[in-house]
Design brief:
- This protein is mainly α and 246 residues long.
- The chain folds into 2 domains: 88 residues; 138 residues, Serine Threonine Protein Phosphatase 5, Tetratricopeptide repeat, CATH 1.25.40.
- It contains 14 helices and 2 strands.
- A two-stranded parallel sheet has the order 1-2.
- The termini are far apart.
Amino acid sequence: MKIIRTKPVLMAALGSCEKAWSAEGMQGLLREVQVRLLEVRVKFPLLEFAARHLARLLPAEEHLPFCKGIAAQGTEGGNVLIGILLQEGLEKRYTGSLQQAAVFIAQGNAWYVCDIIGERVWGVALLRYPEKTLPALQELSRHPSELVARSLGAGIHYAVKKGLPATEVRTVFKLLLSLRGSKNQQVKQGIGWAAKTCARFHPEIITHFRKELEAAETPAWFRKKIQIGLERNSYATREKSTIDTE
């Protein structure tokens, strides 16, 4: 399988995509994107670069048809393109971008669709627009698709890791606590991942919620994720202290 490792090679592939768009429209573009970008090995950062290039190439009204066409192809890398194009629409089409992300995640019916789109849409929305994304995620937690609930964990993990302020982390942790009773493995994996990240980067918040964590309704698997996160925080702190004193 061909591998694209550098931007010059990627730009050549994108040039073929641009020519197809100019000559044949959407169908030509979708064909070239699949052949040039999605049927070869391309690391996600390069796919994100390609997605932003395509977002600038296409008129705003063509973003959603493009995403639908990519989703229909069913490739893993296609979800990176979808996630970035929806992310690019957050500023002017915030509500629509979130709604469409939920649709693509539910229809994708695979864990990697949840995580790829969840990080790039929910995670970035939390960082850029926390005041309106927090209630939006609360509403999405009641979505009929449990895959959407899993994807919230991916988004929260990303936002916390990238520096979501402690006040907002406390709010999203409350959301994670509200989902801790789920019996669905997908949901448990998603929110467990996010809970672990909250504990690692904001152990003081775990202290704040100690009563809830010690309650009988908090399952052992959720407590275990918290413990792993706290241990990773302690390890990182010890390592930094060792480096600082050398």
